[in-house]
TrEMBL record:
It comes from the Bacteria. InterPro entries: ANL_N_sf, CapK_Type1_Caps_Biosynth, LuxE. It comes from Streptomyces spororaveus. This is Acyl-protein synthetase. Coiled coil: none annotated. Pfam families: LuxE (PF04443). Residues 23-360 form the Acyl-protein synthetase LuxE domain.
Length: 382
């Protein structure tokens, strides 16, 4: 399938026979590679140094030859050299939270932005099947955090809903307000919860502390993005998370879906009902040897995750991240084909940072400060 057909017919694109998928993703990335190696002087120099060009990309195995951009390059002051498009053509900038002190900046031109939005919308329809209801977003709104990747992803989901509310404002979160909204909406709309696992955990813990339950609707979904490892290093265990949601909200595990993505890439891997994160057919995940990232390891082997993205015309969307995991190409019970990806941990020595981690750190810091404030003293008469 051609790229435009994949974006327009995701139900078919995600179910191509494996051989057709290999041909389609290779063709899409070869065309993308040809664009950047021709029009981007910086990237062309990397290709010449590696001795690789578009004619060398003929099969899926050849995709590993394409030079990668280390994620750290997006933090450099001169990151504009990565652009294939001109700065004047940049329509959108998405930034990381910069927990290390320096944020990443990923710029998109109009073509990339249109493709990215079309892809994300198509994946939401493919995996969630949502077309109505109310969304409780446990995140800041786009007004408060317009450049945050997690918030941008949430905005697209809003287009599928009848109503929504953001309940993280000025980096504070009141579980009682969130529970109140869910109870009110239950009279008229299917309720969905969207946010990082740590904040959803806070929500259900508040419910448990009340000694009550709040049963959502048969079609309700809980959708998560980031935040499985807290800034303290403590991990949220998925199996325990699913059990807690089922017990307190009546949402079964197959209605809880996680997503995996990074702001430097348009690749968003969304979970199916079997909790396998499906790589979209316009992207390819290349897992690299931890000791030599020029070497691609076989499916099932753990290594450093790199994503190759065919949607990006703004810059070469072939990025080596600091995440460790593996890919799987075995058949999924849901019937979708291609790759699935599993994220395990950050590379040793890499900073722990994502939108959700930044939000949690800030919320916790505000709560600690509030607890330490002295009560005001009444005036002494005398």
């Amino acid at each position: 399938m051609e790229l435009s057909a994949m974006l327009g017919c995701p139900e078919k694109a995600f179910r191509m026979p494996q051989g057709e998928w290999e041909e389609s993703v290779t063709a899409a990335l070869r065309e993308s590679f040809a664009l950047h190696s021709e029009k981007n002087a910086f990237y062309r120099a990397q290709c010449e140094a590696a001795g690789v060009g578009p004619d060398d990309i003929g099969t899926l195995a050849d995709l590993a030859k394409m030079p990668l951009l280390p994620m750290s390059m997006f933090k450099n002051p001169d990151a504009h050299v990565l652009l294939t498009a001109s700065l004047a053509d940049v329509e959108l900038e998405i930034r990381s939270t910069g927990d290390s002190g320096v944020p990443s900046v990923a710029r998109r031109d109009a073509t990339t932005t249109t493709r990215m939005l079309s892809a994300v919308f198509a994946q939401y329809r493919e995996f969630f099947g949502i077309s109505n209801g109310a969304g409780l977003f446990l995140s800041p709104s786009a007004v408060e955090a317009p450049e945050m990747g997690m918030v941008k992803a949430a905005v697209v989901l809003n287009g599928l809903l009848d109503h929504h509310a953001y309940v993280v404002r000025d980096y504070t979160f009141d579980p009682e307000e969130a529970l109140g909204l869910l109870r009110t909406w239950g009279e008229s709309m299917t309720r969905h919860i969207i946010g990082p696992p740590f904040l959803i955990t806070r929500l259900v813990q508040a419910l448990e502390e009340q000694g009550s339950t709040l049963r959502l609707d048969p079609d309700s979904m809980v959708i998560t993005l980031g935040g499985w490892t807290r800034y303290t290093g403590q991990k949220i265990v998925p199996a325990e998370f699913y059990e807690q949601l089922d017990r307190t909200l009546g949402v079964p595990a197959d209605r809880v879906r996680d997503m995996y993505g990074m702001i430097e890439s348009n690749m968003l891997a969304v979970e199916c009902e079997h909790h396998r994160k499906h790589v979209p057919p316009w992207s390819y995940v290349s897992v690299r040897d931890v000791t030599d990232t020029s070497v691609e390891v076989a499916p099932g082997k753990t290594g450093v995750i790199a994503t190759l993205d065919a949607l990006n015309t703004a810059y070469p969307g072939y990025v080596l991240f600091q995440d460790v995991g593996e890919v799987d190409v075995s058949p999924c019970p849901c019937g979708r084909t291609g790759q699935t990806v599993t994220f395990r941990r950050r590379l040793q020595g890499a900073e722990l940072g994502c939108c959700a981690v930044s939000i949690e750190k800030f919320i916790d810091s505000r709560e600690i400060v509030a607890e330490c404030e002295l009560p005001s003293l009444a005036p002494v008469e005398g």
